[in-house]
Amino acid sequence: MSYFRRQGLAGIAILSIAAASPLARGEDTAAVPDRTPLSARTAGGDEVLLFPNGRWEYVNTAKATEAKKVADQFPENKVRPEGAQGGLFGIGRYIMPGDKDYNRRSLSGK
Question: Which of 2, 65, 92, 95 is deepest in the core (most CB within 10 A)?
Fold first, then answer.
């Protein structure tokens, strides 16, 4: 058997194995993590929701709005306005949505 013929057979074998793989069939190989929040209680007995990313919030909406007011006073929660772009690693300016100087295309006049 010639060298090229052996290589061709090996290539066919590899292609058939790749075609049978889960990725080729469009299947997701990784399991999708469950992102539903867990119900819990604080030491004071208040019901809260625990999210997988470490965030938590009160189930009672009145307590949730009160907690948000307290959290908004801390400087670490005033880092970057929501919806702003830019400020890589705290360097540079933030571009707010609707900024007239952002995305204004070329100014060359062509």
Answer: 95
The reply to whether the predicted model has a pTM over 0.90 is no
Q: Which of 76, 82, 110 is nearest to 96 (CA)?
A: 82
Average pLDDT over residues 14-35: 63
Q: Is 93 left (phi over 0), alpha (psi -120 to 50) or beta?
A: beta
Contact in structure between 102 and 93 (CB atoms under 8 Å) = no
CA angle 87–91–95, rounded 5-degree value: 30
Instruction: Kindly state the tokens that stand for 7.
Output: 């290589």
Rounded CA gap, 25 and 23, in Å? 5
And the tokens for 105? 């295309």
What's the DSSP call for residue 100? T
DSSP 8-state secondary structure symbol assigned to residue 35: -
Q: pLDDT above 90 covers what percent of the chain?
A: 25
Q: Distance between CA atoms of 18 and 12, rounded to whole angstroms?
A: 10
Helix (H, G, I), strand (E, B) or coil at 83: coil
